[in-house]
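Q: Can someone sanity-check these two? First one:
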Amino acid sequence: MSERIQKIQRAIEPLRQQIIQHPAYSLIRDINDLKVFMKYHVYAVWDFMSLLKTLQNNLTCTTVPWFPKGSADTRYLINEIVAGEESDVDQAGNRKSHFELYLEAMKESGADTSPIEKFVTLLQKTGTLETAFTESGTPKEAKAFVEFTFSIIASQKDHLQSAIFTFGREDLIPGMFISIIHDLHKDLPENISVFKYYLERHIEVDGDHHSHLALQMTANLCGDDELLWQEAETATIQSLQKRIELWDGVFRELQEIKGFGV
């Protein structure tokens, strides 16, 4: 692993620990608490797919007539990740994107998917994030999270997009949360099985194979340019701060529901 990648990992480790040890996880004790978590988290799952497709559009030729574009190695890395994220398999072996799988998990648990579905429909129709946020009732922390991602998309800087994709989304699922889901699954297998599968699949694919591919992609895009590496580090730090704020929103809502601190 390159020195520059290790430097970023050292710089973001305190933020990663804040996310992994976030108090929101300790308040998730039953399926209703999990539904609150899902209501926020689904926006991160969706905008991850948007970031992924931005990278594919920028790093490969997605228009006709086709022409070779950029590095063949980098094309391979992003196309391999896209194939796994956009057309993975569910428990029955059916092809689904991770976003579609997450929606299925929400529906199985009884979580309300109408806000995120309305958001996506409105965005398709209007092409305007602000309208989609407002009319769908997106939580403000989820709105801020998505807005940051789309500001990086709008920067048109491949190395920044790759950096927040790689370091801002890598394995951030604490063991405690996985244990909570396993316990809930024992009591409510008919309501949690898809979400449990989603988490396990995320750890298996995103946290292992795709993580290594993404690290190499970011290294290819930053190359030997110290300025690009510094910009990548700054963007990653900002991305992780937005993730903390997203979990803060979950925490505050769960506190209100449970009557804590009010």
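And here is the second, same format, sequence then tokens:
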Amino acid sequence: MTLPDAERFARLRLARTEQIGPVTFSQLLERFGSAQRALEALPDFVRRGGANGHAVPPVEQIEAELDAGNRAGARLIILGDADYPGMLAAVDPPPPLLWTLGDTGLMARPCIALVGARIASAGGQRIARGLAQQLGEAGHVVVSGLARGIDGAAHTGALPTGTVAVLGGGVDDIYPPDNADLYAQITEQGCVVSESPMGARAQARDFPRRNRIISGLSRGVIVVEAELRSGSLITARLAAEQGRDVFAVPGSPLDPRSRGPNELLRQGAILCEGLEDVERAFNTLRTLREPGPTNPFDGAPDDIEAAVIEQVAALLPPVPTPRDELARALGLPIGTVAAALLELSLAGRAELLPGGLAAAQSP
């Protein structure tokens, strides 16, 4: 499928609109069938949901982002494009867009993520580099986050065979700066990917989204070294939620960097001491998590009455709740409740979450 240029532009604009994250973006496309129609309907949606306005970025802002990408030699892949990575499209919900530098075809090949501690031991880095080399020679593309330590070692080991670096900032944001040479090599021999706008500088809030793309691109995630509270364990948790395999390289109980992988093993992760463990797991018959209903808005009326929206708002608790549970409690069709929740989220009164969940937004 090839998206028309006007629809691609509208999808970028919708994705950059305040309060619209991946869940809301996907639901708006399901509700209206296109970003163009969603943008047209947005003012009425927000008003009915109980808010006064919504910060849709001006056309000039989107044109400036596209111009910046063109100047950098970057390529924009929009959800719905034929070359949007298939594994990432299966995530609930997928990122609306990806900026890329380098060989985007690598993301269509079998990918596996290799992540770990920034302050890694020499032994851990040697393991990551050697394992990445073995994985690459076996036909896998190694995905990581270009951080210091394990990430950098993984990219280095996989450079000759193909590696993908997912960044928190824009694809033109070299972070950390001391990986500038490695970044340059990856843009030449591999692929750099980001969901953030061109020119964006990485901030703490960007890394969970970055980690979600790392696991989403990959059939499995290998953790080499990580402390118990680390981004690498967040990536492993996201992988498990996405129905992907989680591997852990065991380590000495005397090293705090081994606590993360060892804890993952206690929780049921797959022991990884080399390529054979990965291949054995991948050769076992497995299926990704089954997708939910094709379209939650089937049967929903074009206009939801204000009274129905307020009924849903009154019943919605601050903890994540399935929309079908709300529908049963209210005696309403699921499509009607889904549409009301979408309007409440656009008004900043509800938060839409993966898996058909929603929660009341804190005032």
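A (reply): Looked at the second one. The first helix runs from residue 5 to 15. DSSP finds 15 helices and twelve strands in the chain.
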